[in-house]
């Protein structure tokens, strides 16, 4: 038992994701993201060492699938399952995606057909509905109608493209967009232009090579929920 515990205490769990503040942000900063802080607290309390770094989203998914990383942040249930990743019983937030336009634009989202008159900005490898919108993006990506952006700070760059009329609409999780617009001091320039989908649960997702991490996460979640540590982290990021 002593040897087993020593091994567990020495093990480093590696989490990777692209920048999606406030779910996950700059590693080792005062605001690394609420999902990062919650996950770090859970696994450090369980005796693990926690490591988190930013990588492109497609690479994070691949590494977690293969087991060279142990988990990633900010995934929806269908998104996790379609990438063969495991999710715990407990989600960490409820999200909802909206379309966004400039304040002087009267356009409203009324189904995928209404996008044909717009220049849509999206982020590479993001899955939006596993249906008509993703099909529309796949058919039109890298044209003027659907402009796909990659790399770090993709949302900030899409917001700037919107402000400078290089695109005319984008879509994003409401929590993420509000946080980013406030940080950029641009909230007065952008408004919602219709809800895209129903609300959804947002999870930390884990590698299929380590299914035991799910149980450790769920047990640790209940512990910090009951002792008040979970709510302190959520309040720090203004997460309802």
Molecular structure report:
By secondary structure, the protein is of the alpha/beta class. It has two domains: 2-93 and 200-236, 3-Layer(aba) Sandwich (D-Maltodextrin-Binding Protein, domain 2), CATH 3.40.190; 97-195, Periplasmic binding protein-like II (D-Maltodextrin-Binding Protein, domain 2), CATH 3.40.190. It has nine helices and ten strands. The chain has helices at residues 2-10, 34-45, 57-66, 77-82, 132-140, 154-163, 174-184, 212-226, 229-236, and strands at 12-17, 49-54, 71-76, 93-95, 97-102, 120-123, 146-149, 169-173, 190-195, 200-206. The strands form three sheets. A five-stranded mixed β-sheet has the order 7-6-8-5-9, with helices on one face. The model is unreliable at 1-8 (pLDDT under 50).
What is the secondary structure topology, with strand pairs?
Blueprint lengths: L1 H9 L1 E6 L16 H12 L3 E6 L2 H10 L4 E6 H6 L10 E3 L1 E6 L17 E4 L8 H9 L5 E4 L4 H10 L5 E5 H11 L5 E6 L4 E7 L5 H15 L2 H8 L4
Parallel strand pairs: 1-2, 6-7, 6-8
Antiparallel strand pairs: 3-10, 4-10, 5-8, 5-9
Helix pairs in contact: 2-8
Strand order of the largest sheet: 7-6-8-5-9
Evaluate the radius of gyration: 19 Å
CATH first level of the largest domain? Alpha Beta
What's the N-to-C terminus distance?
41 Å
The stretches of 5 or more residues where confidence is low (pLDDT under 50) are 1-8
Principal-axis shape equals: globular
Write the CATH architecture name of the largest domain: 3-Layer(aba) Sandwich
Largest sheet: 5 strands, mixed
Instruction: Identify the CATH homologous superfamily of the largest domain.
Output: Periplasmic binding protein-like II
pLDDT averaged over residues = 93
Structurally, the number of domains stands at: 2
SS strand fraction = 15-25%
The number of distinct helices, counting runs of at least 4 residues, comes to 9
Q: How many extended strands?
A: 10
């Amino acid at each position: 038992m002593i040897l087993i515990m020593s091994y567990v205490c020495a093990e480093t769990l590696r989490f990777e994701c692209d920048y999606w503040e406030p779910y996950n942000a700059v590693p080792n900063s005062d605001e690394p993201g609420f999902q990062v802080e919650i996950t770090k607290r859970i696994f450090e309390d369980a005796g693990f060492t926690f490591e988190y770094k930013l990588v492109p989203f497609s690479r994070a998914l691949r590494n977690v699938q293969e087991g060279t990383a142990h988990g990633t942040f900010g995934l929806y249930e269908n998104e996790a399952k379609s990438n063969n990743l495991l999710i715990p019983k407990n989600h960490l937030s409820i999200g909802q995606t909206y379309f966004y336009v400039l304040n002087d634009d009267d356009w409203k989202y009324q189904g995928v057909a209404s996008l044909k008159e717009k220049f849509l900005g999206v982020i590479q490898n993001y899955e939006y509905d596993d249906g008509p919108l993703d099909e529309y993006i796949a058919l039109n990506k890298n044209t003027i109608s659907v402009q796909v952006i990659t790399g770090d700070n993709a949302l900030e760059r899409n917001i700037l493209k919107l402000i400078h009329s290089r695109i005319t609409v984008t879509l994003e999780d409401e929590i993420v967009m509000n946080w980013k617009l406030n940080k950029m001091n641009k909230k007065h320039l952008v408004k919602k232009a219709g809800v895209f989908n129903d609300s959804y649960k947002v999870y930390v997702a884990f590698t299929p090579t380590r299914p035991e991490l799910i149980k450790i996460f769920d047990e640790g979640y209940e512990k910090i929920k009951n002792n008040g540590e979970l709510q302190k982290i959520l309040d720090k990021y203004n997460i309802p």
